[in-house]
Amino acid sequence: MNTKWLAPIPPYLAVWAGLFLFQSAWFSLIGFHAAILLALAIARPNIPIKILFQSKHPKWILASVLLCGLSGVGLYFLWDVFGIANDLPAQLQSVGLTSSSWPALIAYFSLVNPFIEEYFWRAYLGSDRRGFYIGDVIFSGYHALVLINKVQFFSIIFVLVCITFIGWFWRQTWRKDDGLLAAVLGHMAADFIILVCVMLQVRAG
Predict the structure, then answer these.
(1) CA-based diameter of the chain, in Å?
(2) Largest CB tally within 10 Å, which of 9, 24, 180, 198?
(3) What's the domain range around 100?
């Protein structure tokens, strides 16, 4: 057994503990990142950090940003289709996401999270396979913990399928581009636009 596949367990546990045990979105997010960084510190992968800033083909950056940016736009216009829980604002406030905390969350999640996740999921746990790869599913899976009780069951399945595809797509951009900049910027676009969409919908509701 390849022991590196034990590395996703602590990040999963951190997300679960933050949301369901400590009921803190910030604990969940910081714990998630701390668990990833600890796993990387233990593994010490021989992968230079500079790959996060490398791209040989701007077309992959453009494709990644446009595709991932559309996810937030789609969420905004299909909000009612996803069966979002009526008490979503109360749920978010219960984990510390108040009106005043949204800007800090959006800034941190959009500017920091993509670099940490892409190095972990794509560089360390990634693969140059063109087809199906279990790592894409594992990357997608922890998002289900965030969505529980917030959207309908079938919406969770749909989102997980979409995120699995995005994980596959980001692996392909890395394989073709010899760098992760396209994945990082696409990830950044998705995180920013989705969170802004949720913030606007919550404030409007």
Answers:
(1) 49
(2) 180
(3) 48-204
> Does residue 165 lie within any of the structural domains?
yes
User: Which residue has 């034990």 as its token pair?
Assistant: 6
Quote the number of domains for the chain: 1
How far is the C-alpha of 10 from the C-alpha of 5, rounded, in Å?
11
Is 36 a member of any domain?
no
Look at residue 40 and tell me if it is in a domain: no
Q: What share of the chain is helix, strand, coil (3-state, %, to 5)?
A: 75, 0, 25
Q: What is the pLDDT of residue 204?
A: 85
Round to whole Å and give the CA distance between 59 and 24.
39
In a domain, 91, yes or no: yes
CA–CA gap between residue 132 and residue 86 (Å, rounded): 36
Work out the end-to-end distance of the chain between its first and last CA atoms, rounded to an integer number of angstroms.
49
**Which whole number is the average pLDDT over 50-68?**
95
Short-list 186, 134, 145, CA closest to 29: 145
The torsion angles phi and psi of 171, rounded to 5 degrees, stand at: -65, -40
Is the distance from CB of 119 to CB of 11 less than 8 angstroms?
Answer: no
| Residue whose pair of structure tokens reads 């693969």 in the numeric block | 127
Judge residue 44's burial from the number of C-beta atoms within 10 Å of its C-beta, 0-12 exposed, 13-18 middle, 19 or more buried: exposed
**How would residue 2 be classed by pLDDT, with cut points 50, 70 and 90?**
low
Provide CB contacts within 8 A for 60, sequence distance 6+: 173, 176, 177, 182
Chain centroid, CA 65 distance in Å = 14
Contact of 187 with 66, CB cutoff 8 Å: no
pTM of the model: 0.95
